[in-house]
Amino acid sequence: MGNLEQHRCMRGSRLISFIAIGTLSVVVSGCMVGPNYRAPSVPVAPSFNGNDGPISTGAETNVISHSDWWKVFHDPELDDLESQTDTANQDIKIAITHVDQATALTASARSYLFPTIGVAQGVSRTREAQNRPNNGNTAGQAATYNDVVLPMVASYEIDAFGRLRRSLQAAHATQQASEADLKFVRLATEATTAIDYYNLRETDQELGILDRTLSDLQQGFDLTTSRFQHGLSSDLEVAQAKTLLDQTGADEQALQIQRAQLEHALAVMLGRTVESLSIPKLPDNPLPPEIPVGLPADLLTRRPDISEADRNVAAATARIGIAQAAYFPQISLTGLMGYESGNAVSLLNWQNTIASLGASATAPIFTAGRLRAGVDQAQATYRESLAQYEKTVLVSYQEVEDQLSALRYLSSQSRLQTLAVADAARAEQIAIQRYKAGLVSYLDVVVAQQSVLSNERTSSQIAGQRMTASVVLIKSLGGGWAGTKTP
């Protein structure tokens, strides 16, 4: 019984020693080589140049969630399409898998901060040579024995210089970058769906214009044909009327192709086959909503691509520390505790316990410049990530300014184009009346009708461009917002 107590005390002492060494390693691990992350700084303008007045008309919107920014358009059909996009789009699914991969890599990097513990079992039977020196047997007799081993082994790397913790920092920053990329992919995909949708609506509006125009042109052709049959018009005027009618019909078919392609694109965005989606013709494009732009500095926290670039800078910073830590020794602890016996029956007897505890350190002496090259590469990668961050910020400002300018000038263009449509319609009526009175040829009517058609289509296209610019502006601002509308 006394021997058993003595054995337990010995095992307890070894365990206390291992804990003491582990505690010491935690204290030593407070040092980390390499630079710490510092947020990049870029020049920020106090306000946007294009934000000097109302950019659109519509209902005031003070708060829009990032997750459903499209609801600012108050369009149930768009709401349904965006909901399907969020759940079924393949680009979003791919981005989600990237987040899952990065999360797993972070968990793997974290695991290296803890001991690795395992169990190993070995069974062997050994026969030594008869004449082997010092085999413990009489010369000419072979030694044969069994060896059954059941140990628990543990190993632990003391992170004395921060290599493992820098690896965890890099992995975690990469995970955060993947999460930001998912948000950006989701935002870009939602914006593409909205743009395709409003392009489809604009195409429907143009098709409506062409349908009405074809009806008017058919009446004009019938009138010219009747006048020709009564000797009041020439065959040239009939040919001119027929040419305009056929040309407009061809334009209508070209728009049908465009509509089909937009519908197919929407089906892909929704994760569906093209034949499974059919969108009915929709009414005219609505007016774009008012969008609170805010300050340029807000983009640094609102845009997910800027957040992704920032996290890439953090990951690159940590990798410099990983490369620099390679210059320093790697210190490891190994421990073993278990049983060893010549037969399995008595293996678990306390007399057969075994234990060992050791430490090792490896340090580079000559690497032919490999470590220096690793540091140089890590530093170059950091500079690249920093430049990419600055570029992302500058491009984000440009995108907002572009859309603010577009919306401002499109608003003025829309007002002028509305006047042009009215002027063209008035000129058409005058030309028709003068033609019926025999004062002008039918060519004047053709020119007037072409002007009406061209101006009406241009007006429709401007309305579509305003909706597209509104969507792109919201995307450029990072999606939703909280605040007041544009002054």
Automatic annotation (TrEMBL):
GO terms for molecular function: efflux transmembrane transporter activity. It comes from the Bacteria. Pfam families: OEP. It is a lipid-anchor. It is found in: Cell membrane. InterPro entries: MdtP/NodT-like (IPR010131), OMP_efflux (IPR003423). Keywords: Lipoprotein, Membrane, Palmitate, Transmembrane, Transmembrane beta strand, Transmembrane helix. The chain crosses the membrane at residues 15-37. GO terms for cellular component: plasma membrane. Belongs to the outer membrane factor (OMF) (TC 1.B.17) family. This is NodT family efflux transporter outer membrane factor (OMF) lipoprotein. It comes from Edaphobacter modestus.
